[in-house]
């Protein structure tokens, strides 16, 4: 009988220890839990960083195996893109000069400017695939909390947490993220938020308080862009396309589905927009 009790005690010991740890964690003050969570993240940060650099090194050696003909073709394509981007930069500079001239004539305050900080995506949590991602820059590159994050297809999300060498991005697909948006060519703002997206499924979001005269279908979608309200995202950045609208229960507005860029599922590089004047 004594041996049986000892065996039962040994079997229950891990569960008792786990219960004590959980009780202590729940009873700890919020500031202590926040400190411990941040410390744990900083201690484990070298692991995803090392894995990210290892993937870059693997990609480099795989590119070294390409033939000279393939490299010549790739170089020619890059030269064409470079010429196109050079022209776009020149056009952008001319437009900026024109905007500055009009602001001076109309005595308008200058529009907010941003410093572009490109960052590599380190990892994505499989259990929160559409909620957040981690990038390979943090306080070491003066990344601020709340800064907008974009890519060539439009909005990615915003910085939700910053650590020494890493930063966490709250993605546009997260149901907790809301953005003031407008249909391209319209000035009436309404609300966008992320949808409930299964891992590895097609990303989508939803819109609310859409004016009744805005109609969208899968055959004739409406381009959804940021409105600039809220002070986080600059105006005119693409969010997605509204592919369906229907009247809300109150009959005053519409709700709708937004199809997001499928490239959000395979992001390798993003750009953080750091305000030149945080105030």
Could you characterize the architecture of this molecule?
The chain is α+β, with helices and mostly antiparallel strands and 279 residues long. The protein folds into three domains: 1-44, no CATH class; 68-172 and 267-275, Thrombin, subunit H; 178-263, Thrombin, subunit H, CATH 2.40.10.350. Helices cover 35% and strands 28% of the residues. It contains four helices and twelve strands, in the order H-H-H-H-E-E-E-E-E-E-E-E-E-E-E-E. The protein has helices at residues 2-27, 30-44, 46-64, 68-106; strands at 114-124, 132-135, 148-151, 154-162, 167-171, 178-183, 190-194, 204-210, 222-226, 238-247, 254-259, 269-275. A six-stranded antiparallel barrel has the order 1-2-5-4-3-12. A six-stranded antiparallel barrel has the order 6-7-8-11-10-9. The mean pLDDT is 82.
Task: Report a brief summary of the structure.
With 279 residues, the protein is α+β, with helices and mostly antiparallel strands.
- What count of helical segments does DSSP give? 4
Order of helices and strands: HHHHEEEEEEEEEEEE
Look at the structure and give the mean pLDDT: 82
Largest sheet: 6 strands, antiparallel, barrel
Global structural class: alpha+beta
Flag low-confidence runs. Answer: none
Number of strands: 12
Major sheet: arrangement of strands:
1-2-5-4-3-12
Instruction: Give me the CATH superfamily of the largest domain.
Output: Rod shape-determining protein MreC, domain 1
CATH architecture assignment name of the largest domain? Beta Barrel
End-to-end separation: 73 Å
């Amino acid at each position: 009988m004594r041996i049986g009790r000892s065996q039962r005690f040994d079997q229950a010991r891990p569960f008792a220890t786990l219960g004590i740890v959980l009780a202590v964690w729940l009873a700890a003050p919020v500031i202590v839990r926040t400190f411990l969570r941040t410390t744990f993240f900083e201690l484990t940060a070298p692991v995803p960083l090392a894995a990210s650099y290892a993937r870059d090194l693997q990609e480099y050696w795989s590119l070294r195996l390409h033939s000279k003909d393939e490299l010549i073709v790739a170089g020619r394509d890059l030269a064409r893109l470079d010429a196109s981007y050079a022209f776009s930069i020149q056009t952008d500079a001319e437009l900026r000069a024109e905007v500055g001239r009009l602001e001076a004539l109309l005595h308008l305050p200058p529009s907010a400017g941003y410093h572009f900080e490109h960052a590599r995506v380190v990892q994505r949590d499989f259990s929160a695939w559409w909620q957040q991602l981690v990038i390979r820059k943090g306080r070491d590159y003066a990344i601020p909390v709340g800064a907008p994050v974009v890519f060539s297809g439009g909005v990615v999300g915003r910085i939700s947490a910053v650590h020494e060498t890493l930063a966490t991005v709250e993605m546009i697909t997260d149901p907790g993220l809301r953005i003031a948006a407008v249909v391209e060519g319209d000035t009436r703002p309404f609300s966008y938020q992320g949808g409930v997206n299964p891992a590895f499924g097609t990303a989508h979001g939803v819109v609310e308080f859409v004016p009744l005269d805005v109609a969208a279908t899968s055959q004739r979608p409406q381009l959804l862009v940021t409105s600039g309200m809220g002070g986080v995202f600059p105006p005119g950045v693409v969010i997605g396309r509204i592919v369906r609208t229907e009247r809300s229960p109150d009959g005053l507005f519409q709700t709708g589905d937004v199809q997001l860029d499928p490239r959000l599922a395979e992001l390798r590089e993003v750009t953080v927009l750091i305000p030149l004047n945080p105030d």
